[in-house]
Amino acid sequence: MQVLKQSVVVFSQNYLPLCRINIKRAIVLLVTDKAEALDLSTESGWQVHSPSLVLYVPKHIRLKIASTERMWKVPPVNRREVLRRDHHSCQYCGSNKRLTLDHVLPRSKGGPHTWDNVVTACERCNSRKGDRTLAEAGMQLRTKPKAPLHPAISFAVRESTTQFWNDVQANLE
To answer: 56 pairs with which residues across the strands?
Structure first.
């Protein structure tokens, strides 16, 4: 495993996960004292050697410099955002051709235009479902529709950050 191909998780001053950066960028942040190591043990990081220096680079670092954390709000329900959430695939059959939007509970039956009622559907599945509910059409959704999560939360859920926080919690107890 090549050390320079590894990546490091960056946290803000408030310990919110921000992003993943390559190890070279992490070294620059550590050497210029713009970041500090969050890992207390050398077992969860890498040693980088130069002709005159051996540097320990942890898997998690925290920025020391002030970074303005952008305010995030749930994006509006529109075609582009729904397609992005559903990974550009039909939520009934999985196709990625001729995509449209479909209201799970049709608007004619009182269904709202909200994140938990709008999904991506191919033209074929959308016409097959028509102006009926899922039960009436005998169809099923592949995933339950929901509003997008804050990027820091979704990042923390899917990355090794969760394991990091579990380790930190175990050390505090």
So the answer is: 47
